[in-house]
Write a structure and sequence with these properties.
Length: 130
């Protein structure tokens, strides 16, 4: 799995929101209510089931995993789920590099949290706020 080279926190979340016909994936830095759109995916029962089983509920239609939980993924016998989990770090890398100001490349072995964010998708979930 590709490693993220930009500054990030292992507690940053990947949100999987189920919409009619598919899933929408967002990146949400820790201690922030701002979400950055990553990509859309056609509906997959195994994707929804994995996020429901291993993640925490964000809203009535979504679940989230931390980046640490994404890196702990080892269920490679499901090709759709494996492709998704391999795609997420690359998309997060792109979002951190081009859409989140103040983020610089660092050694992936010493991740640091994102200190500045700007909103592309600005949503707020009372259940997720911490």
């Amino acid at each position: 799995m590709k490693r993220i080279k930009e500054k990030f926190d292992n507690r940053d979340r990947i949100l999987c929101i189920t919409v009619p016909g598919g899933h929408q994936f967002y990146y949400q830095p820790v201690r922030s209510n701002k979400r950055y759109w990553l990509f859309n995916l056609e509906f997959g029962g195994s994707v929804f089931a994995y996020f429901r089983k291993h993640g925490c509920r964000v809203s009535e239609k979504g679940f989230s995993l931390t980046l640490r939980e994404i890196y702990q993924f080892d269920d490679y016998h499901n090709p759709k789920l494996a492709r998704l989990m391999n795609r997420i770090p690359g998309q997060v890398q792109y979002v951190l590099k081009y859409e989140v100001p103040g983020v610089e490349a660092v050694d992936a072995s010493t991740p640091e949290k994102v200190t500045q964010v700007c909103a592309i998708h600005d949503f707020y979930d009372h259940e997720f706020a911490a």
